[in-house]
Specification:
By secondary structure, this protein is mostly helical. The protein has helices at about 1-20, 25-40, 40-45, 90-100, 110, 120-130, 165-195; strands spanning about 50, 55, 65-70, 70-75, 155. About 50% of the residues lie in helices and about 5% in strands. The strands form two sheets. A three-stranded mixed beta sheet has the order 4-3-5, with no helix packed on it. It has a two-stranded antiparallel ribbon with strand order 1-2.
């Protein structure tokens, strides 16, 4: 009987705490979505550059700078609710699938940040994106590996530096340091002779 009473108590507490969980308002969800997007660096990746700086008049409307990796070149897309070039015609669930990378439209390198977020976080991001001002801006088409690149890109493929290559880089630096030391000693000797 004691076990049954303890089980009932646990179930009652679970129902109470689950029922008391605070639901976020629409404004709170948008604010949380903005925070999550900002924290993961998406704001700058999906905003085009002009003169080397984010073009805030086209905020989150897709980038003109691609990201090169084993996948080819990926251009961050328009995340504003524009119906022609953005996410305006996607359903809420389709937007969440894109965020998580379930559609395969985004290289895993980028979607890995989001695929393990909980449902509330994903919904907050989706609501934030839908709250943005729609901007007409089509990002360049993605390129497959080996296709000709005609736009600026950020190369995400790490360059492996061998120990041999490092030795070649260190030698000139060591010679310069030795030359500076020699010059300093020579200058010190001349100064002591003048005294």
């Amino acid at each position: 009987m004691k076990r049954f009473s303890a089980l009932l108590l646990v179930l009652a507490l679970a129902v109470v705490f689950t029922g008391c969980a605070k639901k976020l308002s629409k404004e709170q969800m948008i604010e949380k979505g903005k925070y999550l997007v900002s924290a993961c660096g998406v704001l700058k990746e999906h905003t085009p550059l002009r003169d080397g700086k984010p073009d805030m008049s086209k905020f989150m409307s897709g980038s003109n700078v691609g990201y090169m990796g084993p996948w080819g070149v990926y251009f961050p897309k328009n995340l504003t609710p524009d119906s022609d070039t953005g996410i305006g015609l996607l359903t809420d669930d389709e937007i969440i699938s894109e965020i998580k990378g379930d559609t395969g439209n985004v290289p895993g390198y980028f979607s890995d940040y989001y695929k393990n977020l909980n449902e509330e976080d994903l919904r907050c991001i989706m609501m934030y994106l839908k709250s943005l001002e729609p901007v007409v801006n089509k990002a360049p088409a993605d390129l497959k590996p080996g296709e000709k690149v005609t736009t600026p890109v950020i190369n995400l493929v790490p360059k492996v530096v061998t120990a041999e290559a490092l030795k070649k880089v260190e030698k000139p630096a060591a010679k310069k340091a030795a030359a500076k030391t020699s010059t300093a000693k020579s200058t010190a000797k001349k100064a002591s002779k003048k005294k």
